[in-house]
């Protein structure tokens, strides 16, 4: 049943534009999670690149000459040598990626659940529909986010080039996008998309299925109603446990 135009204007924005609201909410939650966990991702990447660069130069003696050993010492070394804010170096493409990926997959999942598959007569969403919907939503979200994912990886690889004494290729995120486009065309932004969407499908099979199960539990066993606040709480509870699996 349609809502009269005058009454629609009085509705909260979340009810007037539910899909856009869920996209923004998921993007904001993913941004907060990314900012909180990015130093861990950076130190992990530095350790990986350091090992590869040292092995290329020194072979078996690389372990003895490695400047960083362990996550904590790596993080402390970055702070001491480069500054505290360098723990968030390269966070911009990571935020772009998670806004597009998280927002895209959540909107797709909600659309599949409400429009394509539909709920059962008792308003319950069967597990098999959650699994299929989660996998399809992961595929769509990752496909949309693949250009930002590619730039994120390329920017992280700049650290390896610096360790090897090679000149840097990119001046920043937007320069990386422009250079990839100019050298390989629009298709170059989707390089490696097939394994990426396969991984995203498996991750979201568990991630979004858990999200829907948590939300359904909250609605049935707490005073919370099925609204955008409950959706946000369910999303954040899942993000706390599974965020790093999408890195």
List the helices and strands and how they pair.
Blueprint: H1 5-10, H2 13-16, H3 18-58, H4 62-65, H5 71-82, H6 91-117, H7 127-163, H8 173-184, H9 193-221, H10 228-242
Helix pairs in contact: 3-5, 3-6, 3-7, 3-10, 6-7, 7-9, 9-10
Write out key terms for the chains shown.
247 residues; mainly alpha; 3 domains; 10 helices; transmembrane helix; Solute carrier family 25 member 27; transport; membrane; transmembrane
Describe it.
The chain has 247 residues and is an all-alpha fold. The protein is 76% helix and 0% strand. It is built from ten helices and no strands. Helix 3 packs across helix 6, helix 6 runs antiparallel to helix 7 and helix 7 crosses helix 9. The chain is globular. The protein starts with a helix and ends in a 5-residue tail after the last helix.
Q: What does this entry show, briefly?
A:
By secondary structure, the chain is mainly alpha-helical.
